[in-house]
Design brief:
Helix content: 25-40%
CATH superfamily of the largest domain: Aldolase class I
CATH architecture of the largest domain: Alpha-Beta Barrel
Number of helices: 15
Number of domains: 2
CATH topology of the largest domain: TIM Barrel
Strand order of the largest sheet: 1-2-3-4-5-6-7-8-9
Shape: globular
CATH class of the largest domain: Alpha Beta
Structural class: alpha/beta
Largest sheet: 9 strands, mixed
């Protein structure tokens, strides 16, 4: 399949639904786009990743030059994020083996609601505009045949609303992924309206804060329609957090989508922030991270989280680095660059997030150690004051003077 923007009418190309209808869902089909790469390369990728979903929009594919060489492609940040990149990692303590990274069954009062933290609940959607191969929700998002409990059920929606209404501590709802903006504008408006109409006994709105977590600006920035911006304004969405890993994703279309949100929503424009995965094969050096954070800051978008790459993802062995190496990178940036531009570096665990201290020997509440088999692990006190263990990998970076 060849995607040539010049051969598509502009109004079609910039129609987000056209982008989704024409998305490539079989990695073998992209071989027609790349003029210098033998199709056997893509056939091999397909064979090694048969159990996983693949999808790239024409917009995303157009970001990779058609005449790129195989050597260049295998270093390309778009390719390294959204294509299968070899054998699925099946061995090792952090292998892709059915282990949950974020979901705990007891946190799901309905199939759609996850209540992990005290005052907020996540409304969990499972499909995506395209698929990140490092997704921490791989069991529900990347797997072609996810378990029934990993599928959003509209039949549970009223039950979900009842749960939100019945729990006095919940004052915030986060529309999260998969991809909430895969919903059409009308359906998204219904969701936000239903949430906004929940009332306390005094008649005041119960849900004070509404947030949307999305990767739409990288996959399909044309999803930011005028109608969507009206919905954000009407229901006073407080924050939109964009997932982004590399500065190459900040295209003119990405920037235009940011401007459209901010200018269209006016005084009720949501706070714009980002979540960035720390990927050992893509952005794991201080210069690359700073270029990303700096470009976001130029757009008045706040880099909010740098998230240590999750274990138990399909290509973890190619993408992960050690937590301490991540702290070394942050030490090269913290206070050396404008502090408002530097995100919080976190490890996320099914028992909750923790901020990584920049003390390279750890702290009393955050310890670098090994398990009974000699594998590196991090042990830390989570937000509930309980010790948890997180599988780590060996350090690879040399100490850097700061």
């Amino acid at each position: 399949m060849t995607i040539n923007r010049q051969r598509v009418r502009e109004e079609e190309w910039k129609d987000w639904k056209w982008q989704q209808r024409n998305a490539v869902k079989d990695v073998r089909q992209v071989s027609d786009h790349f003029t210098k790469i033998d199709r056997t390369f893509f056939n091999d990728l397909y064979e090694k990743s048969k159990g996983l979903k693949f999808q790239v929009t024409p917009y995303m594919l157009s970001q990779i030059p058609p005449d790129i060489s195989l050597e260049e492609l295998q270093r390309n940040p778009w390719f390294l994020q959204f294509f299968p990149i070899g054998d699925v990692y099946r061995e090792g303590p952090d292998a892709y083996n059915g282990t949950e990274n974020w979901d705990m069954p007891e946190e799901f009062p309905t199939s759609n609601i996850q209540h992990k933290y005290t005052n907020r609940a996540l409304l969990r959607f499972r499909n995506c505009l395209a698929y990140c191969n490092f997704c921490f929700e791989a069991l529900g998002t990347l797997e072609k045949d996810p378990k029934p409990e990993k599928i959003f059920k509209w039949g549970d929606w009223e039950k979900s609303l009842d749960y939100l209404a019945s729990r006095p501590e919940i004052e915030e709802v986060v529309l999260s992924g998969g991809e909430p903006l895969l919903l059409p504008d009308s359906k998204l408006e219904q969701v936000l309206r239903d949430i906004s109409e929940i009332r306390n006994s005094d008649g005041k709105p119960k849900i004070r804060f509404k947030r949307i977590h999305t990767r739409v600006l990288s996959h399909n920035p044309y999803r930011i329609t005028d109608k969507l911006v009206e919905v954000l304004k009407e229901y006073r969405v407080n924050e939109m957090a964009f997932h982004i890993a590399h500065s190459s994703e900040i295209t003119p279309d990405f920037k235009e989508a940011v401007y459209r949100i901010r200018e269209g929503a006016g005084r009720y424009a949501p706070i714009l922030a980002t979540h960035t995965p720390l990927l050992g094969n893509i952005n794991a050096n201080a210069e690359t991270l700073w270029e990303l954070f700096g470009q976001l800051y130029e757009l008045n978008v706040k880099p909010y989280y740098l998230i240590h790459t999750f274990p138990h993802t399909p290509f973890a062995n190619q993408q992960r680095m050690s937590v301490r190496d991540g702290a070394r990178l942050m030490k090269q940036l913290k206070r050396h660059k404008s502090n408002i531009v530097i995100p919080e570096y976190i490890v996320a665990h099914y028992n909750g997030k923790v901020t990584v201290p920049l003390e390279l020997d750890g702290t009393p509440e955050f310890q670098y150690t090994k398990d009974g088999h000699g594998n590196p692990v991090v042990k830390f006190l989570n937000w509930k004051g309980k010790w948890v263990e997180y599988p780590d990998v060996k350090d690879a970076l040399a100490p850097h003077p700061v």
